[in-house]
Amino acid sequence: MKYALLDRGDRLSRALSEEFQGLAAARGFMMNETSPDIVVSIGGDGTLLQAFHRFKNQLENVAFIGIHTGHLGFYADWKKDELSELLDLMVSSEPRKVQYPLLQVEILTSSGKIELLALNEFTLKSVDGTLVAALHINDEPFEMFRGDGIVISTPTGSTGYNKSLGGAVIHPSLEALQIAEMASINNRVYRTLGSSVILPKHHHCDIIPDPEKELFIGIDHEVMQMSEVRSITCRVAENKITFARYRPFPFWNRVREAFIGSE
Ligand code: NAP
Ligand code: MN
């Protein structure tokens, strides 16, 4: 088995990374940063987001495993004291391959088209002042948004930024995207639904901002600034991310442990 390893860079994550490499070598695993079968992320959910973006061009061939150096995470579901248990399972058993939906974002600017892929979400804000944008669903005008911003998330991203905005938590077996508002201003001219909206696969939404305005475009942990944006199209992506599950950890148990606590 060929594996790639990415750690958060703090002392604990680096130490665990070395421990993992030692245990892996003893079991005959090969490190391979260019065409791995398994991508191991050591740190937090944020580290797994980085690992995803490093290997997003070879999603068909890789499966991810996340090790958390703090509390349990949503993507990082192995704890720091479980490395040998994990590696023993990697030697002795076949993992269940679990796939989660991704978000495809297409941005049309005056200089061309940009395609992006998100594991958690796409975030849109205005650089100065409030964001003003029209939102269309399946090519029909839906609402005129005015407010702090719009967050469009995947099911596994629904427990991230989306949840802080009052969006629903969506089980990742549902192929869907969720549109959540950030502090919309509502009056007779600018009127939005207020609640978050969930679209199924094969539906899409377009955001049409004022092309004169500078925008902050966020994809997961990364933010970029863009100008002359004509439209932004979001839909459920055709490809998915694969996780190698060596033991079950149901999504609702992760939600309970992260937000409610286990008794
Ligand atoms: P960060 O500022 O360290 O992340 C914020 C927190 O979100 C961290 O505790 C992170 O966990 C957690 N997180 C990431 N993905 C999650 C998911 N799918 N479900 C539940 N929690 C999740 O930045 P980061 O680590 O680079 O993560 C970027 C993500 O942070 C974004 O994609 C967005 O979802 C989230 N975010 C949230 C807010 C908000 O809630 N107001 C604002 C900005 C961004 P770890 O500590 O394990 O990394
Ligand atoms: Mn983080």
TrEMBL record:
GO terms for biological process: NAD+ metabolic process; NADP+ biosynthetic process. InterPro entries: ATP-NAD_kinase_N, ATP-NAD_kinase_PpnK-typ_C, NAD/diacylglycerol_kinase_sf, NADK. Keywords: ATP-binding, Cytoplasm, Kinase, NAD, NADP, Nucleotide-binding, Transferase. Its main location: cytoplasm. NAD(+) binds at D45, G46, N120, E121, R146, D148, T159, G160, Y161, N162, K163, S164, A183. The active site is at D45. Its EC number is 2.7.1.23. Its cofactor is a divalent metal cation. It is found in: Cytoplasm. NCBIfam families: PRK04885.1 (NF003424). PANTHER family: NAD KINASE. Belongs to the NAD kinase family. This is NAD kinase. It comes from Cohnella abietis.
